[in-house]
Amino acid sequence: MQKRVVGVFGFLLFQLFVLPSAANQEPPVFVFGGKQFYVGMSEREALASFSVCCELSPPAQTGVEKRPAPEGLMLGHRILAREGSPQSILGVVYFSGGTIVRMTRSLDDRVDTWNDDVVAFARAINRALSPTMGDRDTTVRVSIRHERMSNAESDVLSLSFANGRGIQIHIGTLDRPDAHSNKRDFATLDETLEPAKPN
Asked: What is this structure's pTM?
């Protein structure tokens, strides 16, 4: 299980922070069935590409995005693998004004989203963020660094808020298996307090 959690956050680091820095000039894209999709892409072009690789549920013709939705919620179309493939949800696309305005996809399909350890890890992050975030937007500083210790190396993902609260996630590998667990890969989640940053 720990390997899966480590895999999730390793993939997160790569997808969210390494790839964008290497291609800042181009808009970020998602790829489904070999086709590229991005925010701002015309709905017509997107639907033509989806028709080759995927199915939308509900279908685009239903106009689900025009229906009334609870405040702050957008209604979208699930992106499903074509018939003959496992009917898994590949992602969700949201249209407005004839263009894609938002897309989502799983960080890592290999992670069991029903696994108790994965759920507990996600809830721990939520509990740590809630006192600072609440139901509102706030600014967060994200940093990543690589550490080499005497018996391990790790990537450290830090989320820091202006008031000094933060979260630090270590995703690492021991040089030798741990004596108690006999495992090398580990992930830790810590809350941090630092001096508040001026606005």
From this structure: 0.66
